């Protein structure tokens, strides 16, 4: 499989999360062997957990699967640029590479608001790439928020 195929799985996870009322973000963690270690979607609302971002849930699941909190030699595919918390988790888990689809201009911490992964003072550096399936991810997010605004607008007029 290649970056586009793994990102397609992350988009499926994002779609599933969106169907549950979560912001549609999905993540897939892959070992350097090509083995899929974890697939997750956002679950902050359903889990009542502010840390239940797709990235964190994928890292947790993979850590349990491998019986190790370090995940060297892995690549995380995520449909939206990770936030500060998620970038920190990637660093602590020693993830080798990050591939994200769309930028997050308000909270993205790879390029949009800060460049955490490029900080030379950190003890681990995550390689990263952006733009794989960016338009599909952005469209999914736009549709989700448009529908949410419509529901809110309709509930205000009742």
Question: Would you write up a description of this structure?
Answer:
The protein has helices at residues 3-19, 44-47, 54-66, 84-93, 134-157; strands at residues 26-31, 36-41, 74-80, 97-102, 127-130. With 158 residues, it is α/β, with parallel strands linked by helices. Helix 1 packs parallel to helix 5 (134-157). The longest helix is centred in the last third of the chain and has 24 residues, at 134-157.
Summarize the structure in short:
By secondary structure, the chain is α/β, with parallel strands linked by helices. Helix content is 43%, strand content 18%.
What value does the Rg take, in angstroms? 15 Å
The helix/strand series, from N terminus to C terminus, equals HEEHHEHEEH
Beta-strand content bin: 15-25%
Q: How would you describe the oligomerization state of the chains in this entry?
A: single chain
The main sheet orders its strands as: 2-1-3-4-5
Structural class: alpha/beta
For the report, how would you describe the main beta sheet? 5 strands, mixed
Shape: globular
The number of helical segments is 5
End-to-end span in angstroms? 49 Å
Q: Helix content range of the residues, please?
A: 40-55%
Extract low-pLDDT stretches. none
How many strands? 5
> Residue-averaged pLDDT, rounded?
96
């Amino acid at each position: 499989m290649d970056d586009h195929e793994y990102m397609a799985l992350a988009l499926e996870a994002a779609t599933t999360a969106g169907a549950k009322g979560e912001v549609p973000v999905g993540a897939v963690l892959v070992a350097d062997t090509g083995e899929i270690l974890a697939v997750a979607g956002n679950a902050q609302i359903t889990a009542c957990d502010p840390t239940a971002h797709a990235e964190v849930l994928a890292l947790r699941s993979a850590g349990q699967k491998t019986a190790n909190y370090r995940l060297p030699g892995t690549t995380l595919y995520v449909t939206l640029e990770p936030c500060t918390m998620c970038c920190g988790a990637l660093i602590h888990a020693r993830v080798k590479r990050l591939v994200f689809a769309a930028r997050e201009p308000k909270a993205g911490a790879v390029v949009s608001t800060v460049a955490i992964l490029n900080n030379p003072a950190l003890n681990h550096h995550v390689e990263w790439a952006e733009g794989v399936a960016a338009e599909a991810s952005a469209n999914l997010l736009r549709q989700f928020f448009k529908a949410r605004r419509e529901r809110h607008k309709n509930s205000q007029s009742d």
